[in-house]
Structure formats: C-alpha cells, structure tokens
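Tutorial, part two.
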Amino acid sequence: MQDIKKRNIFLKIDFYIYFFFIIYFILGIGIYDDYGISFDENINRTNGFVSLNYVINFFNLNFDLNPFYKNVPQINKYIDREYGIVFDLPAAAIEVILGIKNTKAIYLLRHLMTFVIFFLSTICFYFLCLNIFKDKLISLIGLIILIFSPRVFAESFYNSKDIIFLSFFIFSIHTNVKFLIFKSNTNIFFAALFSALMTDVRVIGIFLIFITFFFLFFHSGKLNIKEKLLIFIKYLFIYTVTLFVFWPFLWENSFSNLLDALSEFKNYPWNGDVLYFGEFIKAKFVPWHYFLVWFFITTPLIFFIIIFCGFLFSGKILINNLINVEKNKNANLWNNQYEMILIYIFSIFFIPFFAIIFLTQLYIQDGGNYTFYTHH
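Running the prediction step on this input gives:
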C-alpha cells in the first residue's frame, strides 16, 4: 500500500515537472521579444558573419553576403577573430537562409535562439540534479534556483555570450558525469562533443577536460590503465575533431591559432572602467573579492545561502576524504558515486574561481605586466 502511495506521489511530481517546463517554455516564447539589444550583440553578429564569410571563401562557394552584411571583415584582419562562434555562425547562417534583412527581426531571431538553447539546458540541468540527489522535488527546486536567478532569467533572452556558454557548460557537465559513471562509447561521444562545443563558445572551457581526465585516471575502479588509456584516446580524438570542425578560425594554423585564442583570453585587450564600491577602477585591476561581491549582490539571499551551504558540504566531503584517504580501501577521494559527482562539480567551480583570483592578484602585484580577462 505504501509503495502505491509513493508511486502516486512520484507520478504527481512528474506531472508538475512536465507542467513546469511547458509553462516556462510558453512564458519564454511570450516575452522573448520584450528585451532590447545588449551591448555586445552587434559584435556577436559580426563574429558570426566573419566566420560565415570565411567558410564560404574556404569552400569557394558562389554566394554574396553583402545583401545581409556589407563589407564583411576578413577573418585574418578581424580583431575578435579568436571568439568562439558555435552560436553566432549558425545564427548568421539561419539569418541568411531565411532572408531576414529587417534589423528588429534579426535580433529577435537571435533572442529566440538564445532562449531555446537555454531552455534545453534547463532540461539537462534537471536531469543532472536528479542524477545527484535521486529526488525529483529537490531537483525541481534546484532548477527553479537556476532559472529564476534574476540575471540568469533576464539574460537568457539576449545574452548570446554568457548564457550560451552557461548552457553548453550545463550540457558538458551532465554528459561528462554520465561518462564518468558509465563509460560506454555513446557517453564518451556526447561528453567529448559537448565539451568541445563548450570550448568553441569560450576557449576557457578547455579546463573541463583536464578535470574530467583526472577523475577518469584517479578512479581506481574495475578498469585497468590500458582500458583507461583507450577511453582517453577516444575522448580526446572526438573532442579534438569537434573542436576544429566547429571553429573555422582553427582550420588554418590550427595549433598556433588555438594558442592565440588562449592568449587572447588571458590578455584580453579591454581597458575600460568598472564601478565598484562607489569608485571607478580599471577592470584589469579589480581586487580578488570583486567576483564574490557582485555574485552576492546580484543573487537572492535564499539562493546564495543554498549555494553556499552546498559548496561547504561538498568541500567538507573532499577534505574528510583527503584526510582519510589512506584508510579508504580503494584510495579514492570519494566513497561512492554520489560523492564522486559532488567532488567533480565542486572541482569544476573551485579550480577556475581560485585560478582567476590568483592570476588577477599576480597581475596587480606584477605592476600590470600580466593581464587576465575579468570583464565578463
């Protein structure tokens, strides 16, 4: 009898989850055209057309882009050529295929595409939460925190840089978690594919594969070193092919251009000022607590408390396991699948965050000889 009642509760929760996604999608479709053009959108559109023009010339296609974008810059002379174009190139191509020339219609199309991609990532995020907590209601609460964080909700309609990166970041984490648990060829393919696409959005996404490889080799499960190496080779091959195929900038001088993109990220040439605690300061000289302060003041207090508690909980598990690693029979940093996922996600957020703090402080102490991209 209790099993029947429990099953009925889950069915009701399933209904609420389906209903939630339907209402959210309808809401998004209804209001996506209420948002104006953001500061970077024209630049992002240009990025797309620069790469589209390069693809047309690379394959010697007889097509003129001038009716849609006059005097498209050549990629080798374009200042922002190192930007990833996983979103911008398809957006430009769709704009051309549909023959859209009205400025308002162009940007509304981009807003709609941004929302749809983020919406798909929220579905993925729900299943990621479900994979961790094994509880549908808790997973739904986690989903609500993501969607209704004020900046995320608003920017999911017009920010084709950060929100698209966030979306592919979610896709990548979800597929890589599945890969670390079930190392089938299908999971290897999708984990490598989305990790590469995330890197193609922003090259800093490359850090994820290093963390994933660490967890692959560190885990002392049933696989021997030869089997792990074979998995590693498969993953790296799919990742590399996807990275280069979907990023035309890398089609020539591939390795050199990839290094240029990484260098551009590290030394982004933006000398603007930011308002911080009532004063304007150079973005490249922001103090180490800049991110923490802005995260706190732009995040609802209840969301911040939940996120902070989750961070402390995951960190406590990692520290306890490090202290007791010799007592662990398998010599792992985790005792079960649940702990592995928590520590993996903790590492994904912990390592880049403290790397940014360390490198920005290094820049300041070095008198400005080393720069790190802190504006976005």
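The radius of gyration is 22 Å. In part three we will examine how such features are distributed along the chain.
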